[in-house]
Write a structure and sequence with these properties.
Blueprint (H helix, E strand, L loop, with lengths): L1 H18 L7 H18 L19 H10 L5 E5 L27 H17 L3 E6 L3 H11 L3 E2 L15 H12 L9 E6 L1 H8 L8 E7 L2 E8 L1 H18 L1
Parallel strand pairs: 1-4, 2-3, 2-4
Antiparallel strand pairs: 1-5, 5-6
Length: 251
């Protein structure tokens, strides 16, 4: 049954791709469409490491590298760049030009994405990871992710990857805009800065791919920020689970 559902959803993605085929689609939209198809393949093959709505995932011990990274950011002084949380599978494109206040015309967060962003906020408080403030791209999916995960956000056009909402997305410019924005951010002693953006601007600026909900940790070295590592969405529940088990063992 689950495979049949996956096949049907895969066909929906294909139909959407055909519908949008006659329109100008930005590289970011093309990438998101391909990632949706990739999610279907992973789901059908039983890989739920980036689970979709309604698919349970067994708790595991946090991976050592990621657990170490979580412990490190609890000290503060880092920039936590997130790609927005998981989005609606059936919608792979935004209506152009984008009106940021109209969430119905954009690819928005899925129920799984909302739940995961809220879980992240709980994890940050439980583990004790301080965030001084957060910034986000003005798209609904990025602003909602930031608000659910960090409590509030300051939206900025540069994090959208475009100079204006009517500009065509350009990978090189997107990376440049992100670098320019980061140049204005100074590390905060004992606290972190949260940023929620898109795969395109981060990939262009740092050459790293982020799945929806992934958090990249950045550290300032000299005048530039450098990539330290990535924390995946499933890690937060695993870290909390490990902490709870440790408390139980101590009592």
């Amino acid at each position: 049954m689950s495979k049949k559902i996956g096949i049907v959803l895969g066909l929906v993605v294909l139909v959407i791709a055909v519908v949008y085929g006659g329109k100008m689609i930005s590289p970011q939209v093309k990438h998101d469409a391909m990632e949706s198809e990739s999610k279907q393949k992973m789901y059908m093959e039983g890989d739920t490491s980036h689970e979709m709505g309604g698919v349970p995932r067994m708790h595991q011990h946090a991976q050592p590298d990621e657990a170490k990274l979580v412990a490190e950011i609890s000290k503060g002084g880092y920039v936590l760049f997130m790609r927005h949380e998981r989005t609606e599978l059936e919608k792979t494109a935004d209506v152009e030009p984008t009106i940021y206040s109209d969430c119905s015309a954009q690819r928005d967060l899925s129920p799984t994405g909302v739940a995961s962003a809220k879980e992240l906020r709980v994890a940050l408080k439980t583990i004790g990871i301080p965030v001084a403030k957060a910034f986000s791209s003005p798209y609904c999916r990025t602003m909602k992710t930031a608000e659910y995960a960090f409590g509030s956000t300051i939206s900025t056009q540069k994090l959208s990857g475009r100079a204006t909402n009517t500009d065509e997305f350009d990978m090189m410019k997107a990376g440049m805009f992100l670098k320019e924005f980061l140049s204005t951010i100074e590390p905060v002693s004992g606290k972190n800065i949260g940023i929620v953006g898109h795969w395109g601007n981060f990939n262009s600026a740092f050459g790293k791919h982020l799945h929806e909900g992934d958090m990249a940790v950045l550290q300032k070295k000299g005048s530039d920020y450098v990539y330290v590592g990535t924390i995946h969405p499933s890690t937060w529940s695993d870290v909390i689970h490990d902490a709870e088990r440790m408390k139980m063992m101590m009592h």
